[in-house]
Amino acid sequence: MKNRIASILTAMVVLLSSCVPVIATPMTTAQAAQALTASSDRISMDTQGDGIRYHLYQNENKQWDKFLNNSINTTFRACNIGAVYTMITYHTNTEDNSTEYIINKASLDALALHQDTVDEWAHFVTTQLFPDGTDRNTVLKLCYLHIARNYAYDREIVANDDRGKQLLAQDAYYMITTGKAICASYARAFRALVEAVPFNKSTGLVDWASAEPDRIKVAIIEDRSVRHAWNAIQDPDGTWFYYDLTYEDPESLDTFHMSESMIHKYPSNWGTAQTNEWNY
To answer: What global pTM score does this model have?
Structure first.
């Protein structure tokens, strides 16, 4: 309880300076466990506690964090495995050399808190920015510029190469509670803002009263070869375009709505199609 109160107060202190209050009511541990379990047939409830178990075979263990992070991203779309990385334990089955990775109650509670805090922030920001009738392109542009103008790149955490802090900085919660971000937290915060906006299916415009709205789906691309993350969104015609807040000058849109040819022109920034890992 003390940790939860402290987290909310921290978020409120940072965001009130930008007139953005955050008040979150996280889902319960059981709800978080059920949500993760539903994301993959590899996940089961932990019968010895309040957590979940993720099952991997021997040849998959080298990429255990990738497999598990995909499930976390599906369930908690503003979160990353980095927030709970040090709390994950594992158990090896000697009979078939398979491994079960265990996310305990504390980890589930942290993921739920982070996601719900970001959801509250995203709802507040988008309801202030976008009245009914706002078009799709304006939503994308203003979500992008809101983050670029209000949240600085955390150069210190990158320069110090602090692995522990960099893990914690992977999700959107880090950005909205510290006022700073790195590439992954920018990408997840942008996803949270854009996906919070409801669009009327008939008009294609923002409609906060819509009972069954359309929402723009935002992908995150990560490339371990260049240690970078950014966003991808399909235009209505199905063409993918790319968005990268890390390199953004807030008053320009050089890395907003980039084409595939632009991305592949600079492999030192965005890797290659072969090394890119997509999370939808």
So the answer is: 0.88
